[in-house]
Amino acid sequence: METSKNLNSDSVAISTEKLGTKSVVTSENQLEIPLLEDLQVVDKPQKTAAQKVIRKTFKKTAVLSNLLPSGSVLAFQILSPVITHEGQCHSTISHSMTLILLGICAISCFFLCFTDSFRDERGKVRYGLATFRGLWIIDGSSPPEDVEKYKLKFIDFFHAFLSILVFCAVAAFDQNVMKCLYPSPSLDAQEILAVLPMVVGVICTFLFVVFPTTRHGIGFPLSRC
């Protein structure tokens, strides 16, 4: 009996030693295995010249969202069918209200080109109106430190003029407005009304890309970076 007990104790000790040896080997192997993050590090593929040109083109095109009168156009497209009675304009009041709508939207396009924004020391976005002395903050808070950056420049008037032209081109494509203000155009007038807005839009888009803006007006907040 004592011999069997000794054999059992020896076998238990041997198995324990084997388990301990396996755990040590396993831990050593784990230390030698590299991290997944190290294995997944891959060099960025080299971009071709065409891909670089396309990338730069998309960056330039993104500037258009800050220049085109998107907010004014949206308001115009919503109110135009209602005011013009879907192009019918039964009375002089409808004609007058249509012209007033066009004037208000055009003025808003012009005005929004002179607005800008910045982040204060607390990270909040502040909006203001660009002047020749700097940025006039609408809510009365402190202006930004870099005054020269926000001063009114000639390019702002240029962008405002282009924005009005773009809005006029969009309004000329609106069938409700054209039926209300010009219900029976001649064939020559129809050709001009079909081509001229497109030409104006293409030219203004080209000028927007060539002469970009750095302003972030009302409705176009600053990025988080």
From TrEMBL:
Transmembrane spans: 62-83, 95-114, 154-172, 192-211
Q: Which GO terms describe its biological process?
A: endomembrane system organization
**Compartment(s) of residence:** Membrane
- What is the topology of this protein in the membrane according to its UniProt annotation? Multi-pass membrane protein
Top-rank taxon: Eukaryota
Q: List the InterPro entries.
A: DMP (IPR007770)
Keywords on record: Membrane, Transmembrane, Transmembrane helix
Give a yes or no for keyword Lipid biosynthesis in this entry: no
Give yes or no: UniProt keyword Flavoprotein. no
An annotated GO cellular component = membrane
Family designation: Belongs to the plant DMP1 protein family.
Question: Any idea what this protein is called?
Answer: DUF679 domain-containing protein
| Organism annotation | Solanum chilense
